[in-house]
Amino acid sequence: MLKVLSLMKRKEGMSYDEFRDWALNKHPEIARKIPGMRGYRMNVPVKENPDSPYDAISEMWWDSDEARLAGFGTEEGKAAGADAAAHADRFHFMAEEKVLIG
Description:
Alpha-Beta Plaits, four-stranded antiparallel sheet, 29% strand, globular, 3 helices
């Protein structure tokens, strides 16, 4: 199983509250429609931390990198990518997850 973590920093001029609402409510409505995605989580700090390099971390699970590429190649995937790019600068980290405690 492939796991993709997206480390996100809100765009300049966007308040923390606006970003938090987008990340927890608006973006998931678009992102959850990406075909082939096996799991999706959004992690946003409870309160703003101006010293943090990121404002949110999303987690997405895929059966393979081919499944990820296919999902993001669809209209739904392109819409989710465009929405994320409009609201946040992102760094993607792809990993194989190993669960150590259930």
